[in-house]
């Protein structure tokens, strides 16, 4: 259950975990809370306020690729070199089935989300955002030497 209305959209200030809890108390089925789960602390707070036994992550997984492990085990976020390796793998897999601009839009969107958590993503986003085709984007991402990032 998401703790906001459609009209409220994704605005953080409108999240209402207590409303999820109020509804949960009236139901005889498990309720999974969702909304503004960005780290272990926010997941714990959401479960405490809502009374739910579990949370579901959404957009945050685009910001922090290992957010599920961060939330469940209080692990640190994935280091930037591992994120780059994931981006490189994605570009290899995505181009196999690319039919046009889908990959271009998705990778730019993902990099935009990553900028919220990783300062290093800003430079890569600035470089990639002016590219207009999958091969150029893939080359730019594949050209990153992960060993130099460590």
UniProtKB/TrEMBL annotation:
Origin: domain of life:
Bacteria
Which SUPFAM superfamilies does the protein's record reference?
FMN-linked oxidoreductases
Name of the protein in its database record: tRNA-dihydrouridine synthase C
Task: Extract the signal peptide range.
Answer: none
> Which PANTHER family does the entry mention?
TRNA-DIHYDROURIDINE SYNTHASE, TRNA-DIHYDROURIDINE(16) SYNTHASE
- Name the Pfam families on file: Dus
Matching entries from InterPro entries are given as: Aldolase_TIM, DUS-like_FMN-bd, DusC_C
Species this protein is from: Escherichia coli
Q: Which gene encodes it?
A: yohI_2
DUS-like FMN-binding domain span: 2-140
């Amino acid at each position: 259950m998401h703790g906001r209305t459609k009209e409220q959209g994704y605005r953080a200030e409108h999240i209402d975990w207590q409303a999820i809890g109020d509804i949960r108390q009236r139901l005889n089925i498990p309720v999974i809370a969702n909304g503004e789960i960005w780290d272990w602390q926010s997941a714990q707070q959401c479960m405490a306020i809502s009374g739910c036994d579990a949370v579901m992550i959404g957009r945050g997984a685009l910001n922090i690729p290992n957010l599920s492990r961060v939330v469940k085990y209080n692990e640190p976020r994935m280091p930037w070199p591992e994120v780059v390796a994931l981006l490189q793998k994605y570009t290899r897999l995505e181009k196999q089935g690319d039919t046009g601009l889908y990959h271009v839009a998705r990778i730019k969107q993902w990099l935009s989300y990553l900028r919220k958590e990783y300062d290093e993503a800003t430079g890569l986003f600035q470089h990639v955002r002016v590219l207009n085709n999958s091969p150029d984007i893939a080359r730019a991402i594949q050209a990153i030497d992960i060993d130099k990032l460590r």
